[in-house]
Amino acid sequence: MTPNEIEQLIESHLEDCSATVRSDDNTHYEAVVIASSFDGKRPLQRHQMVYAALGD
Questions:
Q1: What's the pLDDT at 14?
Q2: Are 38 and 46 in contact (CB under 8 A)?
Q3: Which of 47, 29, 27, 26 is nearest to 38 (CA)?
């Protein structure tokens, strides 16, 4: 899976979302996700939302 595919997957599952994903080896990824649905959520809840979008 490419960083672009991961960005699209996250953005398609979270409302009003902008995702930037990068990887040096296409095995380990770093994602920056900004979403209005994160408002009022704790960091753990935000992580869970992103993992749910990725299918765990």
A1: 96
A2: yes
A3: 47
Over residues 8-19, the mean pLDDT reads 96
Read off the CATH number of the domain in which 10 is found.
3.30.300.90
Name the residue range of residue 23's domain. Answer: 3-53
Mean pLDDT of 9-32: 96
pTM of the model as a whole: 0.87
Work out how many domains the chain is built from and give that number: 1
3-state SS of 1-56 is CCHHHHHHHHHHHCCCEEEEEECCCCCCCEEEEEEHHHCCCCHHHHHHHHHHHCCC
